[in-house]
Amino acid sequence: MEVSVLTLGATLHTALVPDRTGAVAQVLLASDELGQILGPARHFGATVGRYANRIADSRITLDGHEHRLTPTGHGVTLHGGPDGFADRLWAAEEVADGERAGVRLHLHSPDGDQGFPGALDVWVSYLLDPAGELSIEYRAVTTRPTVINLTNHAYVNLAGEGSGDVLDHLLTLEADAYTPVDERQVPYGPYESVAGTPFDFTTARPIGGQLAQDHPQLKAAGGFDHNFVLRARPQDGVAARAALLTDPVSGRTLEVLTTEPGLQVYTANTFAGTVRGAAGVPYGPYAGIALETQHHPDSPHHPEYPSTELRPDEEFRSRTVLRFSW
């Protein structure tokens, strides 16, 4: 197995993974054309921040002070703003940890960046071991109280990029609830149970079969673009399983483990063929699936959600593991 990382956006760019016969395929949706990477593919595999997902009304309040964020449209600030971490050049250095090898990337985000308070220093490490386990480790510190929510935005197709859609992939989620959303894709209330709904992936189910069900939340988004509330994470900071994705044809599987409380599942509903990968095939709807480990969307406006606040005397740490097998 082999992965590559770009300093632009601290991006997980490729993952070459064998199947049950030993045939290797690139399983991440990606473009090698700079124009696409800076345009319609700008979030493909990128480290998204300072706040992944949506913040309603482009504002937050900390210690009684309101901070106006740079909007991205539709009444929200999405993925940290129009000039978020995915658009920055990160500094990189090679790292090694026993049998694991990889790269550590660093970014300095100044006080007031996209409206967020506090100068923030962020480190993201990608470490791959010989068994096919890729660890993504995040660390951050701030000079003022702020909010932070980091994720990786890779799109996966275990059959290989450009091979078609992921509708026959089997998905299992360690989640008994999700956060329903309004027309802006912002959570509007308490958690809802997945039981008896297309959102029930508590046992392995084909993605296409769940998408075909009649549900107003699926109709509004054109598919899945929702945050799932993961079962309680270990208190000792060990990453626990969030999802298992399987391609029955190739035999490739991806197990996602994380310390984060939520998982945004996005089935590339709006893809319109504007991005082509190495195979030269345009990516249409459902060409891949994003399994974004993170805190819940719009948490600053929902005190009942796990907090995303970070203060100067604290250190943000998060870990996600992508465990490939075949």
TrEMBL record:
The active site is at H153 (proton donor), E292 (proton acceptor). Its EC number is 5.1.3.3. InterPro entries: Aldose_1-epimerase, Aldose_1/G6P_1-epimerase, Gal_mutarotase_sf_dom, Galactose_mutarotase-like, GH-type_carb-bd. It is an enzyme of class 5 (isomerase). Keywords: Carbohydrate metabolism, Isomerase. The keyword Isomerase applies. Pathway: Carbohydrate metabolism; hexose metabolism. GO terms for cellular component: cytoplasm. Gene3D superfamilies: 2.70.98.10. One of its GO terms (molecular function) is carbohydrate binding. Beta-D-galactose binds at N53, R54, H153, A154, Y155, D225. Residues 293-312 are annotated as: Disordered. It comes from Streptomyces tateyamensis. It holds the Pfam family Aldose_epim. This is Aldose 1-epimerase.
